[in-house]
Design goal:
The chain has 282 residues and is mainly beta. 12% of the residues lie in helices and 47% in strands. A hairpin with a 2-residue loop joins strand 5 and strand 6. The longest helix is centred in the N-terminal third of the chain and has 27 residues. It is rod-shaped, with a radius of gyration of 39 Å.
């Protein structure tokens, strides 16, 4: 019986010791009030270890803690984020007093990235009034012209833009795009290859068709697609983008018929009507 009473007294002393030790720790632990603000307010604040802490402006209580090696002070690694603004980070190490943390948020730029297939198309931008827009080239390569597949910074006020794309060997493309400010706006466009079709019929059929620059083209009825490599040879500017049509210097030959030569306007970007050549017998 005496032994049981001794054990009970030992448990009581242990419990009392734990209660007093806990109170001692609490007495030795300090708390600090942090007022966390941002300009403008409304930023979401997260800590790398604790996660979401609150939305500015708010108050946070930091506490000291005891360890075997001595007193540990709390530290925070904060990230401030708000739509339309750049992320800001702030580290508050070894907090030992109450304080106010104020972070200034900077407006996020508006970026434009236009991808073209194939790459490397030249870009021109116009606002809703048709005025050409000047924008900032964020790449380290400085060039007079602007090209696709690069990121550009444009005015935050841009809402609706007309983008014009030109690429050698492909049809020009014009599209209206909607811009979301303070974000990277990404668009992708497939460009159509320039292919112009020549159609020539003759009476009678089976006549040979020649072009002064390209040579023998085929026999009638002829339907022939001209791609970029041939169009650029026919263009006097050596750049099919700088002209809407070229002149074909054609010759039609057939045995027992008079040879016939003529110049025909050949359109690069619109449909060419079929040409009928009537040959005169010898």
């Amino acid at each position: 019986m005496a032994e049981k009473q001794a054990i009970d007294h030992q448990w009581i002393r242990t419990i009392l010791f734990l209660i007093f030790f806990s109170a001692f720790l609490s007495a030795c632990s300090n708390t600090y009030k942090l007022t966390i603000k941002s300009d403008p307010p409304g930023a979401k604040v997260t800590d790398v270890r604790q996660g979401y802490l609150g939305t500015t402006d708010f108050e946070y209580t930091a506490k000291d803690s005891l360890s075997t090696g001595g007193k540990n002070r709390e530290s925070l690694n904060l990230t401030f984020s708000k739509p339309g603004f750049l992320e800001e980070k702030r580290d508050i190490l070894n907090i030992k007093n109450s304080q106010t943390i104020l972070v200034t948020l900077h407006s996020a730029p508006t970026y434009l990235y236009i991808e073209t297939i194939p790459t490397g198309a030249e870009i021109k931008l116009h606002n809703k009034n048709g005025e050409q827009l000047n924008f900032s080239n964020t790449s380290k390569i400085t060039r007079k012209s602007f090209f696709a597949n690069r990121r550009y910074e444009i005015p935050d006020s841009a809402e609706t833009l007309w983008v014009e794309l030109e690429h050698k060997g492909y049809k020009p493309l014009s599209k209206e795009i909607k811009i979301v400010p303070h974000k990277e706006n990404r668009f992708a466009f497939q460009l159509d290859e320039v292919v112009a079709t020549l159609q020539i019929n003759s009476m009678p059929n089976g006549a040979e068709i020649y072009e002064r620059t390209l040579g023998f083209l085929g026999r009638t009825p002829l339907k022939l697609d001209f791609k970029w490599d041939k169009l650029v040879r026919l263009s006097q500017h050596y750049d099919a983008l700088e002209t809407s049509s070229v002149n074909l210097q054609l010759t039609v030959k057939k045995n027992n018929f008079k040879e016939k030569s003529f110049i025909q306007e050949f359109f690069l970007y619109k449909r060419n009507p079929a040409t009928l050549v009537e040959l005169e017998a010898l």
